[in-house]
Amino acid sequence: MNQELLDRIDDRLRARGLTDYRASMLAAGRPEIIRNIRRGRSRNPRRDTLEKLAHVLDCSFEWLATGRGPVAPPPENPGDAETAHSGDPALPPRRGMPADVPVLGTAAGSLQSAFQLHAGAPIDHVRRPPGVATAVDIYAIYVVGDSMAPRFEDGELVYVSGRRPARAGDYVVVQVGGGDEDVEAYCKRLVRRDAERVVLEQYNPAGTFELPAATVTAVHKVLTLNDLFGV
Q1: In whole numbers, what is the pLDDT of the chain averaged over residues?
Q2: For the region Disordered, what residue ranges are annotated (predicted)?
Q3: Residue 41 pLDDT > 90, yes or no?
């Protein structure tokens, strides 16, 4: 295990508000990049992997790889994305992603890992990915607990659409209750829904449970990375 590299990664994860899973997916489209470094399976990551990770962590490759040089990445060059990673979708600079997506979720433990959606002011705002640059009714939540791991890890940021239709098999945020009070909600996988019930699946412990349809006020689709980055 390369502890010095991990210390630098952790420093930037905290600064960016990212989890191992999210940073790995944004960098390489695979969830195990940072996990393998932590477990010693990737003691000397490839240069192209570290370059992509440095982009996501908003730091320079030299600093991430060696601990030397400035932390801040070099100024953006419009041609860099085309020459550095030919064939890979380039992430836009952070200034191209305004921090205007409200974070509505906060923890409130229950048997099925429910949480609260604030009816009032958001608890935070996060950056808007380019794939939803003009979308309305987009919000975000922080996943609570490990009931949906490994698909969603504890503390992972999830973007949700209040308008895109949710179908069986989609990951969803289901809202129960409403009005002026905070709304109880669940982040699960939608199995099916009909006029009487909404059936949801979770992974830890594995199983399904039902909510009476009469109590469900909304079923919102969790957006995929393809949705968020227009792939």
Answers
A1: 82
A2: 68-92
A3: no
Q: Name the pLDDT band for 96 (thresholds 50, 70, 90).
A: low
Question: Which CATH fold would you assign to the domain 3-86?
Answer: 434 Repressor (Amino-terminal Domain) (1.10.260)
Does residue 81 have a pLDDT over 70? no
**C-alpha of 229 from chain center:** 12
The letter for the amino acid at 111 is L
Count CB atoms within 10 A of the CB of residue 23: 21
What is the DSSP annotation of 24-40? Answer: HHHHHS-TTHHHHHHTT
**From the centroid of its chain, how far is CA 97?**
15
How far is 81 from 90, CA to CA, in rounded Å? 6
Residue limits of CATH 2.10.109.10 in the chain: 98-229
Domain 98-229 in CATH 1.10.357.10: no
pTM of the model: 0.61
Q: Read off the amino acid at residue 94.
A: R
